[in-house]
Design goal:
With 170 residues, the protein is mostly helical. Helices cover 59% and strands 6% of the residues. The protein has a two-stranded antiparallel ribbon. A hairpin with a 5-residue loop joins strand 1 and strand 2. 26% of the residues are buried.
């Protein structure tokens, strides 16, 4: 991205986030397709842990960029219950929606500093972190889909192209 050239990116990040909200809802729906006999399987818990990690990562970055005061207690939550996880996902998505509706090109180019979960101090542009979050969720949703399939459930179809394409009537 050239310096000062982020004029179209605020809207693009809002659009990508709308896609992500839909994709996460589809993942939750897919978790409900896992047969009851497999809900105690370690792979089901791993799928929940991965979704909890997506939520925690998003909450952590809201804190690191300075939009919320409170950071999650862990970056890798374990053993969440699906109902509680859904509520937390909804809460964090509402916060992100509010934040993303305030961003402009200056905010995307803003450099901020933070401590990583490993300890070192870093700096990044907001643009870079929003890009990271988009890819991060994509990666983990794929892992969850594989786990859901292995447990006998129906994995979510979350490819961006399926969300973004428009049919042509002939």
């Amino acid at each position: 991205m050239p310096d000062g050239g982020a004029l179209h990116f605020p809207e693009q990040f809002r659009r990508w986030f709308d896609y992500e909200k839909d994709a996460h809802a589809r993942v939750v729906t897919s978790l409900h397709t896992v047969p009851d006999t497999n809900l105690s399987h370690p792979d089901y818990q791993k799928a929940l842990d991965l979704l909890a990690h997506i939520v925690a990562a998003r909450a952590t970055w809201l804190h690191r960029i300075g939009y919320v005061d409170k950071a999650p207690t862990t970056f890798f939550p374990t053993a969440p219950e699906l109902d509680i996880l859904i509520k937390e996902l909804d809460r964090v998505q509402r916060q992100w929606s509010k934040y993303l509706h305030t961003i402009n090109e200056d905010e995307l180019l803003r450099v901020f500093e933070y401590n990583s979960s490993e300890g070192p101090h870093y700096r990044n542009r907001v643009f870079d972190i929003l890009t990271q979050l988009f890819g991060h969720s994509w990666y983990h949703r794929g892992q969850i889909a594989a786990l859901v399939r292995s447990l006998g459930g129906t994995p979510a179809e979350t490819d961006f192209v399926y969300w973004s394409r428009k049919p042509i009537e002939r």
